[in-house]
Every structure is written in structure tokens, then in C-alpha cells.
């Protein structure tokens, strides 16, 4: 079997389908989610990506999602709280939050945080 890059047709890059949506985040409308939290949302089929800007020292209310969530900090530092448990994430760090888990996120320090959330159906849900 030929290795990638050695001319094997099976390894040749496949074009994106004509329905692929490629756009910069600036093309997605920014909307308020909670006091101090703004978001831009991209949704496709059963998954969703949300870019959130969390103002410094903002305390948004706890929320519960119907989908599993992976949260990655892009800029700033955040605390994610589940009841009495608090986890602090720095840029480049991620956490998985299972569907149905009440949690809140706050930006720490004097600067806003930029957080990327990826939502997807729980593994136990029918596909």
C-alpha cells in the first residue's frame, strides 16, 4: 500500500461538498446570551459551535444544555463551576461537560475571556 503523498489515488485529498459552509466568525451575528456574555453561533445538522466573549468578572447564571459540550479557552482565563466544584482553565485548555450538567462560566481577572464551545449529541442518544 502506498503511503500518503506517494500518488495513491485513495490518499488523494477529497474536495469539500458544495454544501460546505466556510466563513469567518465575523459573518455570524453577535448576540447577547446573558449579562456580560456575547456569542456568535454556527450550527450544522446536530452539532453547534459557539464563540463566547465573557466580560471580566461577570457572573452569568448557571445553565443546563441538552447536548454534550467541549469548552476550550482561546484567550483569558475562566472558572467553570458545578455546584461547589470549581475548575480554572487557561488558554488552550479544554473540559467536557456532559449533557444535563448545571454549570456556570466566569472570566477571571481584569480581561475578557474568549471561549469556544462545541456542542454535540450525547453518546447515548440515537444518531
Features:
Jelly Rolls; three-stranded antiparallel beta sheet; 127 residues; mainly beta
Question: In terms of topology, how is this protein built?
Answer:
Blueprint: E1 30-34, E2 37-44, E3 47-54, E4 68-75, E5 78-82, E6 85-89, E7 94-97, E8 104-107, E9 113-120
Antiparallel strand pairs: 1-2, 2-3, 3-9, 4-7, 4-9, 5-6, 5-8
> How many helix segments?
0
Oligomeric state of this protein: single chain
**What CATH first level would be assigned?**
Mainly Beta
The total of beta strands comes to 9
Rg, nearest Å? 18 Å
Number of domains: 1
Helix percentage: under 10%
- Cα end-to-end separation: 33 Å
Name the CATH architecture. Answer: Sandwich
> Major sheet: order of its strands?
1-2-3-9-4-7
Beta-strand content bin: 35-45%
Mean pLDDT over all positions: 85
pLDDT < 50 runs, ≥5 residues: none
CATH homologous group name: Jelly Rolls
The outline comes out as globular
Structural class, from helix and strand content?
mainly beta
Q: In CATH terms, what is the fold-level topology?
A: Jelly Rolls
Largest sheet: 6 strands, antiparallel
H/E series: EEEEEEEEE
Short structural summary:
Helices cover 0% and strands 43% of the residues.
Describe what this molecule looks like in 3D.
This protein has a 6-stranded antiparallel β-sheet, with no helix packed on it. The two termini are 33 Å apart. By secondary structure, it is an all-beta fold. It has a single domain, classed as Jelly Rolls. The protein is built from no helices and 9 strands.
Amino acid at each position: 500500500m502506498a503511503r500518503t503523498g506517494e500518488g495513491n489515488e485513495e490518499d488523494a485529498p477529497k474536495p469539500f461538498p458544495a454544501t460546505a459552509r466556510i466563513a469567518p466568525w465575523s459573518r455570524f451575528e453577535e448576540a447577547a446570551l446573558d449579562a456580560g456574555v456575547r456569542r456568535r453561533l454556527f450550527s450544522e445538522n446536530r452539532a453547534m459551535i459557539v464563540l463566547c466573549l465573557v466580560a471580566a468578572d461577570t457572573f452569568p447564571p448557571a445553565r443546563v444544555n441538552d447536548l454534550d459540550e467541549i469548552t476550550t479557552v482561546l484567550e483569558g482565563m475562566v472558572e467553570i463551576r458545578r455546584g461547589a466544584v470549581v475548575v480554572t482553565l487557561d488558554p488552550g485548555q479544554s473540559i467536557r461537560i456532559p449533557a444535563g450538567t448545571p454549570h456556570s462560566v466566569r472570566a477571571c481577572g481584569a480581561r475578557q475571556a474568549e471561549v469556544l464551545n462545541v456542542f454535540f449529541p450525547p453518546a447515548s442518544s440515537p444518531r
